[in-house]
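INFO  loader      accepted 1 record
INFO  loader      residues=358
INFO  predictor   begin
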Amino acid sequence: MLYREAGDFKTSYREDGQTFPIRFDRMAYYALVAVAFLVVPFVIDDYWANAVLVPFLIYAIAALGLNILTGYCGQVSLGTGGFMAVGAYAVYKLMTAFPMVPVPVHVLLAGGITALVGVLFGLPSLRIKGFYLAVATLAAQFFLVWLFNKVPWFYNYSASGQITAPAREVLGIAVTGPAATASAKYLFCLSFVFVLAWIARNLTRGTVGRKWMAIRDMDIAAEIIGVNPLTTKMTAFAVSSFFIGVAGALFFGVYLGAAEVGEAFGINKSFLVLFMVIIGGLGSIFGSFAGAAFLVLLPVALKNLLVGSLGWPTDLAAHVELMIVGALIVIFLIAEPHGLAQLWRVAKEKLRLWPFPH
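INFO  predictor   done
INFO  writer      dumping tokens
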């Protein structure tokens, strides 16, 4: 069997602590990255880009950000949609005010602005936690949506109140605007996902991540052993908001192209990303990707099955989708609180020990 540790010797601490200790896992990861960058862009079409791959990549970034805050640091947040709106409006103002600056820089700056806003709204976490912190972040969600609706400066005094992404290029290839191709949008989002997932993995495995998990498990004990709650929680809010701001900037600039804050970044967006983290698995990088893939593919599969094949009304299919998602959340919270990531981990462990999975 290929999936074995026998013969895979570790001769240094670095090799012993690597993300994929089994050679087969490392080869599978390299193959997946190679296919994602070198094969998919040449076979992708507009339907797969706009309906599946691009939203999956963007939601994966948002789920990574929320998982850092909620899964690793234990700080409950219901303001994801509002922070995505901050990233979207920040990148819009930057793209219109500084058209000569490359759009990747705009996206990163939008993430930095969102990080500052996230730290501001994360200050209550120093005194409150749990349900009360969730209510505080929910207030941030409603306040940010109200702010972007009521202050015309944010949408450049547009009569419709909408924001529209200007056409921008990277290395001569359009990545925003009507001229952007499916391959360009996919590669642009994939590049951000690859870098941010690598950063998240290293942060959560390092000193910063251990401090986050210490605060999550027992904040009083963590403070006793020398973990500073102020810097630890604010760091989690900053990093999480940066990821979510980047996701919001990509969601508006690359995926939607035009948006109205109440419709695109309402409370439903916050709950959707939270459901991705719950179903995928709290405190897991893989769980963020699994939850995003599941909740992006589920509506597409149900629409093709219920509407396309069975001829059901679209509104009925949408209600069925909500019922299925709600039932899955309840099932996962009761039967497997660690989500799809734990199921994947158990399956790998049984395969590794087969035929003796005791």
